Amino acid sequence: MTSNERWLIVGLGNPGPWFAGTRHNVGFSVVGHLAERAGARFRMRGPRCRLAEIGVADRSVLLAKPLWTINQSGPPVAGLMRSHAVPATRLLVVQDDLDFPFGVVRLKRAGGPGGHNGVRSVSDAVGTHDYLRLRFGVGRPVKGQKIGRFVLGRFTTTEAEQFPDLLERCVTAVDNLIEHGLDKAQTALHTR
Fold first, then answer.
1. What is the mean pLDDT of residues 67-87?
2. Using CB atoms within 10 A of its CB, is residue 62 exposed (0-12), middle (13-18) or buried (19+)?
3. Beta-carbon count within 10 A of 155 CB
4. Residue 41 exposure: Cα atoms within 13 Å on the Cβ side
5. How far is CA 21 from the centre of its chain?
6. Quick check: 30 and 40 in contact, CB under 8 A?
7. What pLDDT is attached to residue 149?
8. What is the pLDDT of residue 1?
9. Where are the transmembrane segments (predicted)?
10. Residue ranges per structural domain of the chain
11. Of these residues, 24, 84, 129, 180, which one is catalytic?
12. Which of 70, 122, 139, 174 is positioned for an S-S bond with 118, CB 3.0–4.6 A?
């Protein structure tokens, strides 16, 4: 692995067992699946995050789960970027997204937070919006249901059955991004 090509992939989520499996923790699920597939284990790295390291296409990839609440994810991410010399061009943030129906997965570079406070925190802390994002659609709540309750809720039975295949799709997208670049990864992901 070439250390000068190191990537940082951050899954957004809330720490603790109560939040596991919720829509808002899709980011944790994706980076967890990346680690599991590679046989890597997350370890503590100070009080701010859990880290695992894997290799993708001969590049070193740090996987991170910030241990602050999702809305305060930025400072741990900025700290990791500094301590591991990862530029914003090789930062990928994995997030849940209310703007897409359940299961739609999109890769993009830059852009505003779109109402996602975790993304806003990351952008504020790293001082730019110009990083990569993997957006996992979780859909919208039914009329009258509060957004907070919805994103902190669990998937429906049907969604939970589809989730493992969608995790594989996310992992493939990450592999393609790191190995072939954004344009080719987007084409492969978005034309499926």
1. 90
2. buried
3. 17
4. 2
5. 14
6. no
7. 86
8. 45
9. none
10. 2-190
11. 24
12. 70
Give the architecture-level CATH label for domain 2-190: 3-Layer(aba) Sandwich (3.40)
Query: At residue 187, what are phi and psi to the nearest 5 degrees?
Result: -60, -45
Assigned token pair, 8: 């940082």
Give percent of the chain with pLDDT exceeding 70: 96
CA distance 67 to 63: 13
Helix (H) or strand (E) holding 36: helix 26-38
SS3 95: strand
Task: Tokens for 131, please give them.
Answer: 């990083």
| Rg, Å, the chain Cα set | 15
Res 3: pLDDT: 44
Token pair for 151: 């994103």
Query: Would residue 190 show up in a list of annotated catalytic residues for this protein?
Result: no
4 is in an annotated binding site: no
Please give the pLDDT value at position 174. Answer: 95
With tokens 């989730």, the residue in question is: 163
